[in-house]
Structure formats: structure tokens, C-alpha cells
Amino acid sequence: MTGHDIHAYFEAHYPADQAFTWDHVGLQVGTLDRPIKKMMITLDVTLDTVKQAIEANADFILAHHPLMFHPVETLDTREIKGQIIEHLVMHKITVYAAHTNFDTGTPGMNGHLAEVIGLENPQVLNSHEEGLSIGRIGTITPTTIKAFADTLKPLFKTTHVGVITRRPLHTEIKKVAISGGAGSPDKEAAFAAGADLFLTGDITYHTALELLDMDLPAIDIGHFAEHVFKAYFVDVFNAHDCIVFASHETSPYQWV
Ligand SMILES: [Zn+2]
Q1: What is the pLDDT of residues 126-160, one digit of tens each?
Q2: How remote is the CA of residue 73 from the centroid of ligand 1, in Å?
Q3: How far is the CA of 146 from the centre of ligand 1 (A)?
Q4: Ligand 1 center from residue 180 Cα (angstroms)
Q5: How far is the CA of 200 from the centre of ligand 1 (A)?
Q6: What domains does the chain contain, in order, with CATH numbers?
Q7: pLDDT (tens digit, 9 = 90+) per residue, 56-105?
Q8: What DSSP letter does each residue of the chain carry, written as one string?
């Protein structure tokens, strides 16, 4: 298997033209030409995860979040980004990103998140201007906001979730919308679809105030919730003749 096989898989299942126009998906660093013997799946390409790849002798990194997002004008190896790229090039490690092309796909990131939280009959939550669909909405066995929040924590490896509502936490919920990552732009769609609860990550203070005024209960499950995608790609690519493993990542936040 070479990088071209990975690229062909994504073009068949999650093509680059299904990514938002502002995104940068596909080959990020290195080459698709070399054979892949060991591949690491990671949510983020950080100095830490790159060191894990080097230690494991990986030659290919499949990442969700693009490493190269803004144009690089100077490759200063005193800076973290410069150090990451220097390590990758020195160790001949290719980085390939599947970001919003995976978010908008089926099952894609949101299909997996919907499955993890046990959403029944999940439907697409929102269709954006570019004709790309994102998020899922479906039903759960009726429960309370508090009880549901408690079930989410182990699923997303977090000790805390931020609950945003003026309603009592014992309010019953059944219809749940989810949009992975920083999905706040999908809150209006969740409201319009009659969601009892909206889940996403990276909810800012001002967005939280808007959610309160909309009276749409929401839970900030953290951007790190997206790590659930890794197991899926470990399975997909393990079918091929290379070793595939997931990086060890934790949420950057500790709640003390
Ligand atoms: Zn994300």
C-alpha cells in the first residue's frame, strides 16, 4: 500500500470536493509515492503525536485536523510548527489530512459521533451553502439532561461537560442534535428541527448566551470528542498489508 491507495480510498468515500472551500485536505507533508509499512491515525498532528510516530517507526500519518492550514511563510524551527515539520521531513513521514471531507461524508465524523451517543434514526442536521451536509439529528431513549450528560463523559473521555440551559437539569430530552468539532453554526438548524438538546464542541461564551436566549439546551462535549473517529480508520486500513495504530491523545484541558 502506498499513499496513493489512501488517496484513492478517500476520493472514493470522502472526496476532497466534499470539503469546505476554506479547508486544506489531502497530502500535507511528504509524498504519496512511498510504500506504507506503518500508519498512525491521529486527531491532531502535534509535536507529541509526531514523536509517537517516530518512536513507532511510522511512515504515514492520517490526521483529521490539517497541520498546514494557513500559508507557511517562514519555516522557523525555533517555533513549534517548524519543529513538527522538521521532524516529519527528517524522518520521511507523510502527513495526509481528511478533515471536512470526512465531516460531511457518510458515515463520516458525524455518523460516528451519532453512533457513539446511540442516536436512533439519525438524519442530516444541516445543509450548508456549498451543498455540504453536516451533523446528525435523531432520538434517544427519553432521559434527563443531567443523566445524558453523565453518559457522555466516559464516551468522550472527559471528566466534565459544559451544560448550557436555564431549564432544570431534570428536564426530559428525546430529540438530540450533534455536530462534531466546533459546530456552533449548526445551532439554528438544531433549533429549527425541534431538538431538545444540541451537542457540539468549542462553544464560546457569546454563543452560550445566544443558546440561552434561543432556549436551546446545549452541551459542550469538547472538540476532543472527535477522537472517536480513530478506531474506525484503524479498522478500515488494517485490512491492508500495513500496521495501523491510533496515536495516544488526551484532551488538552484538565478540569481541576
Ligand atoms: Zn475538528
Answers
A1: 998 778 999 999 999 999 999 999 999 999 999 99
A2: 24
A3: 25
A4: 7
A5: 10
A6: 3-102 (3.40.1390.30), 105-226 (3.40.1390.30)
A7: 999 999 999 999 988 888 999 999 999 999 999 999 999 999 999 999 99
A8: -BHHHHHHHHHHHS-GGGS-TT---EEEES-SSSBPSEEEEES---HHHHHHHHHTT--EEEESS-S--SPPS---TTSHHHHHHHHHHHTT-EEEE--HHHHTSSSHHHHHHHHHTT-EEEEEEEE-TTS-EEEEEEEEEEEEHHHHHHHHHHHTT-S--EEE-SS-TT-EEEEEEE-TTT-GGGHHHHHHTT-SEEEES---HHHHHHHHHHT--EEE--GGGGGGHHHHHHHHHHTSSSEEEE-----S----
